[in-house]
Every structure is written in structure tokens, then in C-alpha cells.
Amino acid sequence: MASPFIHPTAEIDVGASLGDDVHVWHGAHVMADAVIGTGTMLGHGVFVGRGVSVGPGCRIQNHVSIFEGVSLEADVFVGPSAAFTNVKNPRASVSRRSELALTRVGRGATIGANATILPGVALGRYCFVAAGAVVTRDVPDFALVVGTPARQQGWMSERGMRLDFDSQGVAACSESGTRYRLDGDRCVALDEGAWP
Predict the structure, then answer these.
(1) Is residue 19 included in any domain, yes or no?
(2) For residue 84, is it within any domain?
(3) Does residue 181 lie within any of the structural domains?
(4) 65: CATH
(5) Which of 24-33, 94-103, 112-121 has the lowest mean pLDDT?
(6) Range in 24-28, 171-175, 191-195 with the lowest mean pLDDT
(7) Average pLDDT of 62-82?
(8) DSSP symbols for the chain
(9) Residue 193, pLDDT score
(10) Number of domains observed in the structure of the chain
(11) Residue range of the domain that includes 144
(12) What are phi and psi of 162, to 5 degrees?
């Protein structure tokens, strides 16, 4: 594995941890106690707050701020200018550092450009948040959510393809062939080893 690449204009605070083959581009800032997993890419102007955990293989596009209290599992994609928030009722004149809400983003999730994730929600594994959506509540594994506020509009495969379920509640990814089943309000992978 290669050592991390850090652009000369990027700032990495003492105490931050960067895995092998991490790329940190122009004007990015990673604060102390943040952990950036192997093979992750932080684009231009990305900010990673104190104590944030970003899993391996993530792609954080330009101008994204990941504030304290947010954690991303492996292989998460965050589109340009997507916004995470961590306080439910902020006021400039009132300190609410002890009230940070935790936000977890599951493995393989996609967050589209200019989407906003409100504090304290959990985004499920391989979910897909459409560009410009405002997420105000938890999103299940494999769910596709769109709009303001975000509402579920279907299901996506691990490969990011729309799933069309038959009358038996079974669908196959058009790209990988992996099969999925609707189980109440959940979508589960049927094929062994389909996703970790």
C-alpha cells in the first residue's frame, strides 16, 4: 500500500490518523482525532471534524463538511457540497457542544450532491440519497429517498441499480444479478455473500 498523499495546501492536525493510500486534495482540513480509512479520497475543500470516523474506500467529493458526531462506514460516496449537521437547534449565542447528535452512515451508502443530512439520523447500508434531498429521519438499508423532506421512492441494489420487485417480492440487480427480497418494510439480499 502507498503512503497517504496530502496536497501541500491541505491541513492535517496533529493527532489525526490517515490510512494507507488516502488522498487529501486542495484546501482540505482534517482535525485532531479524526480517523480516515485506507484508500479514502477527500476532495477539494473537504472539512473533517474532531473525532470523526471515515471508513476505508470512501469518496468525499468537493466542499463537504463532516462535523463532529458523524461517522461513515466503508465505501460511502458523498457528493459535492452535501451537508451534514450535528445540532438540532443551533444558536450562535448558545453553546450546545454537549448536545451533539450522532449521525451514522452505513457501508456503501450514496449521498447525492447538495443533499442535507439532519442530525441524529442513521443512513442504512447501500441506501441512496438523491441529489438535493433533505434527510430528516432514518433511511433503511438499500432504500432510495428523494425530495424535501426526503421520502422513500424505491430500492437500490448494492451496485446502485434500481430494483424492480416481482409479484413474489423478489428483484435482481440488472448489473450484478444479485437477488433481493422485500421483507415487510425491509429489503434483504438473498444471495450468499451478496454484501458484507
Answers:
(1) yes
(2) yes
(3) no
(4) 2.160.10.10
(5) 94-103
(6) 191-195
(7) 98
(8) -PPPEE-TT-EE-TT-EE-TT-EE-TT-EE-TT-EE-TT-EE-TT-EE-TT-EE-TT-EE-TT-EE-TTEEE-TT-EE-TT-EE---SS-BTTB--GGGPPPEEE-TT-EE-TT-EE-TT-EEPTT-EEPTT-EE-S-B-TTEEEETTTTEEEEEB-TTS-B----TTSEEE-TTT--EEEEETTEEEE-STTS--
(9) 56
(10) 1
(11) 5-158
(12) -65, 135
Spatial separation of the C-alpha atoms in residues 160 and 125, rounded to whole Å: 11
- Indicate yes or no: pTM above 0.85: yes
* Residue at 179 is within a domain: no
Cell of 117: 443530512
For the stretch 19-38, pLDDT in tens is 999 999 999 999 999 999 99
Alpha carbons 17 and 39: distance in angstroms, whole number: 13
Amino acid at 165: F
Evaluate if residue 179 carries a pLDDT over 60.
yes
Pairing of strands 143-146, 151-155: antiparallel
Average of per-residue pLDDT across 163-167: 95
Q: Order of strands, edge to edge, in the sheet holding 35-36?
A: 17-18, 35-36, 53-54, 70-72, 103-105, 122-123
